[in-house]
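The records we work with from here on pair a chain with its fold. These numbers are not coordinates but entries in a learned vocabulary of local backbone shapes. To see the layout at work, look at the sequence and tokens printed below.
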Amino acid sequence: MLARRSLQTLLERSDYLNDEQLQRLIARLNRRNSEAIEAEWELITLAALSAVGQVEHEPTLGGSSRLDIRFRSDTLCFVADVVSVSDENDHRLNPVKEIRAALSRCAERLHKRGIRGGFDFRVGAIEPRLQRREYKTKLILPQAHKIKSLVFDNRFRQFLAAIHQQPFQAHQHIIDKPEVSLSILFNPGPINMRCVFHPPYSLPHDTTHNVVRQALERKADQIKQAGPRKSGELAGVIICDGGCQMLRSFGSVDVVTLDQVMKDFLRGSNSIDFVIVVDVFAQPTLLHEGVRGFVARIWSTGWPDLIPKLEGVFRAGLSTLSKPIENATNTLNYLNWAGNAKRLWGKYRGSGYMTDNSIEISARAVMDFLAGRIDRTEFERIVPIDWLAHLRRCLEQGRRIDDVLVKPWVGEDDDALVIKFGDIDAAVSPFRVPERL
């Protein structure tokens, strides 16, 4: 969520971690999977709370388990454990992503042969049946390892052959089997014209059988096993977004809300006093997604006076951090995409400001291009074409480069290379009559 530079700064200021704790946390952060997301949330939460009170990581309470946080301030004293929740298991059971990726590869192969178009597809589903203990929507798709044999079979190859024969027409391919309910439509046109239709499969249909409730139950057991707390010391669970649709969904006729799940859990719990959800939120605008920020939502049924106190602590603590550059889902996708390519771990920033006399472009992209680590095609994917066109225009006008400097982009993993243009340069322009007083 935060830029890697921002995370490193938090690590350097983490005096609430001993050497062993710091090494374990860094090892988790360096993994390229969901464990890195949970470790990042743990660091974010610890750093935010340490800015507004005293924080102890993995305090000894006398029990068999350790909790992530013990917090003390003038107004609050609590212990809490941090957990990241995701829809990763639901995605494995409903491999829409694999179907989309395979169709994207098909569209790219068609494009190389001069056939422009993209694939839309629709997936059938089995709705939840609570009386039969089927609590989630299940898409009618095979397991990932069976997709090739059951979806991209000989009939699909005939479908592709028909597209080759009539590339300017729409073509439909329907698979209706017990294991697969799939309708694929080829639409001629831009290669990125692609839509996916399927019922949501990660939303909860009761307050018990869902990923958030399961995480709460696990953490409640862990807090019980941690040992006795001090007098007046409350206990809570801090849930962070690891890519969980439920944290941002609204209820409907057959979908329960996050609020219902939280209240139902707290009413039946004798060990948890509050639950906090920490997430990345961006207020959308008409033109763009908006500035991202951290937000905390709080539930407590037995201690209503606790909610405004916790809200104040988390609001103040989270405001001391850098602005997040991505949400958890995009962060995890980026980690998987970047893999072991170190130059990709920190994101390039495409552009900053542009004026008649200056431009700002990615300093990392320029250095990687000059060093041959990226080619011109990749460079132009990073730096916007309008910025490069302005640079070319100024050079073709014969303007001199007056200054080049590096300006930090605060809270990001890139810096701005600022190029300032001056008057006409005789080195690349015809001689001209000098201006005289």
Observations:
- Residues 348-428 form one domain.
- The mean pLDDT is 91.
- The first helix runs from residue 4 to 12.
